[in-house]
Amino acid sequence: MALHGMIDLETLGTKPNTAILTIGAIKFDPFTNDEPHTPLYLHVDVDEQTETLKRSVDQNTLDWWQQQKESVREEAFRQDNRINLDSLTKNLNKWCVGLEYLWAHGPLFDYCILENLYTQLGKPIPWNFWQIRDSRTLFGMMTKDPRKEIQEELHNALADSYYQAKCVQTAYQQFKVKKR
Q1: Are 14 and 109 in contact (CB under 8 A)?
Q2: Residue 28: which of 54, 48, 58, 5 has the closest Cα?
Q3: For domain 4-175, which architecture applies?
Q4: pLDDT of residue 52
């Protein structure tokens, strides 16, 4: 079984030093239709990021969040069970163990923000550059974006990572990708 991971962030901006609201991640085998498994879903302490590390918050992104469904906004901004950055990195490091590849939807958002955070904290990044995969490019090669047919919820980091993983499985089947 191939072990890949899909990761997604919900944030307060689009720059590498932006504050993270939530991180969602799920493991999956892209060569099968097996259900993604081993979810990781964390709400991150925004105050620690903005006050201690001076990570940024973008007004345009706050305005964008105001345009999202109330239930999605409430989930992303809820204050209970927020974890500190040390717990975030420990949980993510543990979750990444054993992954062959790590996917995100676009090469310049989720990875850059997390790598910037790890660097700022003086911690090693829990993946290698050669493990990075990009679902946006993969979906762009398909006749139609597979997410549009199955994704029910947008802007929930765990739901987004789940649907993106399922769509990578669909793409692998459509392109008849074989294990090496």
Answers
A1: yes
A2: 5
A3: 2-Layer Sandwich (3.30)
A4: 98
Q: Identify the DSSP state of 151.
A: -
Nearest to 8 by CA among 30, 28, 23, 29: 23
pLDDT tens per residue, range 85-117: 999 999 999 999 999 999 999 999 999 999 999
According to DSSP, residue 129 is labeled G
32: Cα separation from own chain's centroid:
21
**List of residues 6+ apart from 58 with CB closer than 8 A:** 12, 13, 14, 15, 18
Task: Report the chain's terminal Cα–Cα distance, integer Å.
Answer: 12
- Write down the residue that tokens 């706050």 correspond to: 62
**CA distance linking residue 53 with residue 48, whole number of Å:** 7
Place of tokens 């979906």: 139
Specify the pLDDT at position 151: 66
Residue 162 has a CB neighbour count (10 Å cut-off) of: 23
Task: Quote the CA–CA distance of 176 and 81 in Å, as a whole number.
Answer: 42
Q: What is the pLDDT of residues 32-48, one digit of tens each?
A: 999 999 999 999 999 99
